Amino acid sequence: MIDDIKSQLEKSCPRMVSCADILTAAARDATILAGGPFWEVTFGRKDGKISLASEANLVPHGHENITALVQFFEARGLDILDLVALSGSHTIGRSTCYSFIDRLYNFNGTRKPDPSLSYSFLNLLRKRCQRVLDLVYLDVITPRTFDSTYYTNLVKKLGLLSTDQSLFSDARTSPFVQAFATQPFLFTSQFAVSMVKLGNVQVLTRPNEGEIRVNCNYVNTI
Ligand code: HEM
User: Fold this and answer.
1) Measured from the CB, is residue 76 less than 6 Å from ligand 1?
2) Cβ(48) to ligand 1 under 6 A?
3) How confident is the model at residue 201 (pLDDT cuts 50, 70, 90)?
4) Residues at the annotated binding site?
5) Which terms in the Gene Ontology molecular function aspect does this entry carry (predicted)?
6) Is CATH 1.10.420.10 the classification given to domain 60-198?
7) CATH fold of the domain at 1-48+204-222
8) Whether the predicted pLDDT of 222 surpasses 80
9) What is the per-residue pLDDT for 216?
10) Is the separation of the CB atoms in 39 and 28 below 8 Å?
C-alpha cells in the first residue's frame, strides 16, 4: 500500500513527499479507519540516505523489563506516559508466537508458565501456538477495533506480550494503565498527543540532511 501511495505521488509531484511523511500520515489514517482518534500530521520529513537491516532490529522485542522500555523511550524524548499510551496501539494487530512462547512453557527459566497470564488465556494460547511463526491477535477481545480494551485486558491478565502485561504490574506504569482502562477518552486523547511526539523523533528536516526517496524500499542511487 505504501508503494502504491508513493507511485501515485511520484506521478503528480515527483520527489516532493518523503516515505517518512507517507508512513506518518498512513499510521494516522489507519488509526482513524480502525475507530481511533485524529491528530494533525505535520510534513517535511526527509528519508535517510543510509538503510541498514540491522538498525531495523534495534527496537524492543517484548522481553524487556519496564526499566529497559523506559530507557529506550527516554532516549528518544518520550516519557513513561508516552510508553503506556503508545503501547495501546497493541489494541490492533498480531504477534508471532515466537515473541511470547516463553510465557507459555518456561517463563524466566522456571519451566513454568508466566503467573501473570490468566489460566484460560494460557490454555487458549497453547492451542493457538502450534508453531513459533503462528500469529495471534495482540488484543484477544476486540482485535480489529482501536479502543481501550487493550488496557482492560491487562487488568484481567490477558496481555499477550510480557512487556504488555508488565505495564500493569510495575508501579511506574500501572496508574496510567488503570486510568486508560477506566477512561477510554483519556487514552484516545493521550494516544493522539503521544503519536505527534513519536512522529517528531529523530526526524531529518534540514536542507543538507536526508533525501526524498523515489522508491520507499531503496535509498536513491542518483
Ligand atoms: C513498548 C514497546 C513495544 C514493544 C516491546 C513492542 C513489541 C511488539 C511485538 C513483539 C510485536 C509482535 C511482533 C511479532 O512477533 O510479529 C508487536 C506488534 C505490533 N506493534 Fe509493538 N511494541 C512496542 C511499541 C509499539 C509502538 C510504540 C507501536 C506504535 C505506535 C506499536 C505498534 C505495533 C503494532 C501495530 C503491531 C502489530 C503489527 C502487525 O499486526 O503486523 N508497538 N509489537
Assistant:
1) no
2) no
3) very high
4) 60, 90-91, 139, 142, 147
5) heme binding; lactoperoxidase activity; metal ion binding
6) yes
7) Peroxidase; domain 1 (1.10.520)
8) no
9) 97
10) yes
